[in-house]
Amino acid sequence: MATGGSGDILAGCLAGFLAQGTSCEAAAALAVYLHGMAGDFAAEETGAHSMTASDLLEKIPKAVREIFDGGKDK
Predict the structure, then answer these.
(1) Which of 24, 28, 25, 33 lies closest to 11, judged by CA?
(2) Could you give the C-alpha distances from 56 to 21, 22, 45, 72, in angstroms and in order?
(3) Reported pTM
(4) Which residues contact 5 (CB under 8 A, 6 or more apart)?
(5) Residue 28 class from Cβ within 10 Å (0-12 exposed, 13-18 middle, 19+ buried)?
(6) Which of 37, 41, 55, 59 has a Cα-to-Cα distance from 70 of 20 to 30 A?
(7) C-beta separation of 38 from 65 below 8 A
(8) What three-state secondary structure class fits 27?
(9) Residue 49 DSSP code
(10) Three-state DSSP class for 61?
(11) What's the CA gap between 32 and 53, in Å, rounded?
């Protein structure tokens, strides 16, 4: 993802996992995976070339549900 602000979102994901006590290696892997999945969801909806960091950020909750709950809405 080469859109302004996407690295900030990745850094925020990483910081969130680290703040919960996740090991550095696991936090990095989780953050990159979450960031990528959210990016895929955003690109599907808005198109890869017109996607913004805000579009990516809006898809983080959906990606979290997909990863941790198998996509089930509660």
Answers:
(1) 28
(2) 25, 23, 10, 20
(3) 0.86
(4) 52, 53, 54, 56
(5) middle
(6) 55
(7) no
(8) helix
(9) T
(10) helix
(11) 15
